[in-house]
Amino acid sequence: MKFKLEVIGFTIESCLIAQAAGAVRIELCDNPSEGGTTPSYGFIKAAREKLTIELYPIIRPRGGDFLYSETEFEIMKADVQLCKDLGCNGVVIGILLADGRVDKDRCKQLVDIAYPMGVTFHRAFDRTIDPFKALEDIIAIGCERILTSGQKPSVNEGMQLLIDLVQQANERIIIMPGSGVRAENILALANKTNAIEFHTSARIYTDSKMEFINENMNEQLASVATDGNEIKKIIELLENN
Predict the structure, then answer these.
(1) Dmax of the chain from CA atoms?
(2) 153 preceded by a cis bond (ω within 30 of 0)
(3) Reported confidence tier of residue 1, pLDDT bands at 50, 70, 90
(4) Side by side, which strands form the sheet with 174-177?
(5) Residue extents of the structural domains in the chain
(6) 101-147: per-residue pLDDT in tens?
(7) Rounded Cα distance, 25 and 60, in Å
(8) CA distance 7 to 9
(9) Distance CA 68, CA 234 (A)
(10) Nearest Cα to 11, choosing from 179, 148, 206?
(11) Among 36, 59, 57, which Cα is nearest to 46's?
């Protein structure tokens, strides 16, 4: 069985570290404190030019919920087209209705614009009212995978639903566990869920390299980075499982 590891890229340096460590795909995001929003044109362009692995920018115009206005939806459509124009392999989307169901109409429009790129449905899935119905809706829309923590904050807590989702999917769509995926739990996750793709941030923080820092500002200037050794460890464990 060939396992695949996707890594979040919040900076161009993180993308390159993840690629060198063996990741097969980058979910490109901005604003880690918001859970990831659409990266800038310049970021997407630079990532596409420098990476040889798959690149999937997230299409999320803001943080918060996944109920979008018509204006926000127009922005999302334009961003999907931009990703296609820049040569990305796919995009990551997720739109919900106010009652917690998947917005099938709008999501299908994004999938159609994205074609022939691939489309991942992100953790908006974890906010749906009925995950089993949402799974069927997302298959019908034409997405190729679902990123989910099993409707819990982390994959460890959502393990049983992940098991059930992989079983229901029955290879019609990829269920990709994410949120709290680390070397310490990857084997239990793989063996219990039977998932074959996994998603990690391998997140660490690096201190500022500024020689001068204005102490009066009372700021923490550490930035999000990626731990290449953690990625290598996860991949090694999966390959030897």
Answers:
(1) 57
(2) no
(3) low
(4) 90-93, 118-121, 145-148, 174-177
(5) 4-239
(6) 999 999 999 999 999 999 999 999 999 999 999 999 999 999 999 99
(7) 18
(8) 6
(9) 36
(10) 206
(11) 57
Model-level pTM? 0.95
Three-state DSSP string of the chain: CCCEEEEEECCHHHHHHHHHHCCCEEEECECHHHCCECCCHHHHHHHHHHCCCEEEEECCCCCCCCCCCHHHHHHHHHHHHHHHHCCCCEEEECCECCCCCECHHHHHHHHHHHCCCEEEECHHHHHCCCHHHHHHHHHHHCCCEEEECCCCCCCCCCHHHHHHHHHHHCCCCEEEEECCCCCCCHHHHHHHHCCCEEEECCEEEECCCCCCCCHHHCCCCCEEEECHHHHHHHHHHHHCC
Q: Answer for the pair 207, 222: CB distance below 8 angstroms, yes or no.
A: yes
Contact, 225 vs 202, CB < 8 A?
no
Q: What is the pLDDT of residue 189?
A: 97
Short-list 130, 36, 46, 140, CA closest to 91: 36
Please give the torsion angle defined by the CA atoms of residues 157, 159, 161 and 164, in that order, rounded to the nearest 10 degrees.
Answer: -170
Check if the beta carbon of residue 62 is closer than 8 Å to that of residue 33: no
Amino acid at 88: C
User: Is the CATH number 3.40.50.2000 carried by domain 4-239?
Assistant: no
> What pLDDT, on a 0 to 100 scale, did the predictor assign at position 98?
98
Q: At what angle do helices 186-193 and 159-169 cross, to 10 degrees?
A: 40
Tens digits of residue pLDDT in 23-68:
999 999 999 999 999 999 999 999 999 999 999 999 999 999 999 9
